[in-house]
Amino acid sequence: MRSTRSRARAGLALAASLPLAAGALALGIPAAHADSDPHGRQTLQGTKPLWATPSADRGTVADSNKIGARVYLAGRDAKGLASYAQAVSDPKSASYGKYLNAKQAQERFGATKEQIAKVTSWLTSSGLKVTGTNQHYVTVTGDAAAAKKAFGTELHNYAKDGKTYHAPEKAATVPASLDGAVLTVVGLNNAPRLAHHDETLPGPSAVFRNAGPFSTYYGSNVNKDLPSAFGGHAPYAIKGYTGKQLRSVYGAKNFTGKGVTVAITDAYASPTIAADIQEYAKRNGDKPYRKGQFSQVLPSDYTHTGDAPGECGAQGWYGEETLDIEAVHAVAPDSDIVYVAGSSCQDDDLTDALHKVVDGRLADIVSNSWGDVESHETPDLAAAYDQIFQQGAVEGIGFYFSSGDDGDNVLKTGTKQVDTPANSPWVTSVGGTTLAVGKGDKYLWETGWGTKISDLSQDGLTWANGSFAGGAGGGTSTLFEQPFYQRGVVPDSLSKINGTAKPMRVGPDISAVADSSTGFLVGQTQTFPDGKVAYSEYRIGGTSLAAPVIAGIQALAQQARHGVPIGFANPAIYDRYGTGAYHDVTDHPLGRGQGIGVVRIDYKNKVDDKEGLKTTLRTFGGDSSLSATVGYDNVTGVGSPADTYVTSYIPGHRR
Questions:
Q1: Which side of the chain, N or C, has fewer Cβ within a 10 Å radius?
Q2: What pLDDT is recorded for position 37?
Q3: What predicted TM-score, i.e. pTM, was given to this entire model?
Q4: Given a cut of 60, is residue 198 above it in pLDDT?
Q5: Pseudo-torsion of CA 266, 269, 275, 279, nearest 10°?
Q6: DSSP letters spanning 40-56
């Protein structure tokens, strides 16, 4: 994964908000809100990060130090927004599906001109310079002395991860006279938030290619010469599944996503994307794109494009964009696709991209294959994201986020934790599976995605003990309480951890193919070692694949629903739990004790055989400490879409 602050591409596996009333409490939002104090100010809880502890305190920031911040606006009715977002999303509610258009949503819940003017006046009177204003936030710059005056707190330096960052010494406050106009402030801590600078995008990324032999479907090409595994010879990894195969196993039938628009948000924009997606469709039997079917909303400039620490590595995001678009089109070939680019992988820029989708009602479904670990999230930032997701929900827009590619994240961070924004109760967290598609595009089985890699011994006679190579993110949030739609589905053994009295939000919600050894074939223009730039294809996976696959399937389901948007999908997804709409994915689909795996042959230099080949056995169904079990689990959620999932959305259809 590639992080946003910097957010990471959630899964290219080539390898709290203001008080949200009844609706928010039902969704389990933590109590991070504005409380009045005796001095005529309101506290923006959550604006002091948890890492800003007394033991890490390295002293007060000099008054002259420069800061930049975003002051997010709460709008007319933050409590009402959350309540209405829940009501229109819950199939059991009388308001289900009674969405507002973007203009109606802004008029009912958005910030007023008077609120914006009051907030602006307060900020400037404190000595801060307003650098930008829109209906969502006011951006400011100034020195630490002005920030202290505005937000009622000193800024201190704190040690974190071997570096020093500044943060509020106590939670920020705002004048009570603003009457709740401020949602939160982001930017008073800088861990890390780099200065912006205009840049141009680099050219195509370095080439990656798969070596063979391959299988065209699971088990079509079984090796004969390598050591046996699990009582027999393992098949070679598939070359890469295509749209035809995924549509078949996930119950697409004759639905194509017609009349539905899917938005994809990522950072940056591949300069060759338009040509690449057409070439891919032509080569792999997908429908050619009709005129206007694919469009882009791009920023005026880009920042943090380099590969140095703290930068985003723009080229690496090209493959993410390519995968997302090609996967959605392969599954839902008639849906419109709009790519909305962030000018970097920083939170500010990605929230701007999401705001564009909501403000313009650009799409019904939004696929997002990026994220970060929960320990990097602060309640102020969570509040900003959740407000977007709630605004989208009242407009009938659903947000889907990859659950991550590092299982429980212990190997990556030393701490068992989930990913964000997939942890939000207001989004659909998409987990991953290992998928076997058989002859005739028949569904064989899935395991939870958790793969171990075993090297071939030097004498070629045995496989080494396997080590964890990657797996679907999932687990229990420490920030968000259990949302209403998970009650009665998610067991206490998963939702109550570390002695918590209240059940917490667990992810993922639903899942689809993610394992790179049973992954998807993609095609893009890449740069070869000799400097040549050319189109090429390769197999890829990760929950970065699962998210757009589920987005495509949801487009089919919306078409089946006679075009009525599904909106925030979790209540409807959990409403189908326990029916034939899902494959109940487990780690042992062939029986406990029966292992499953494939042989992979890879180029050591990732391009050709000049530096030799690497032969490994990839064993399935072992995701760190997470397990895919019968019923809901923290690897695959309620399961993957089965043959009747899409048709279950046909009005009046019995599940």
A1: C
A2: 52
A3: 0.93
A4: no
A5: -30
A6: SEEEETT-S-TT--GGG
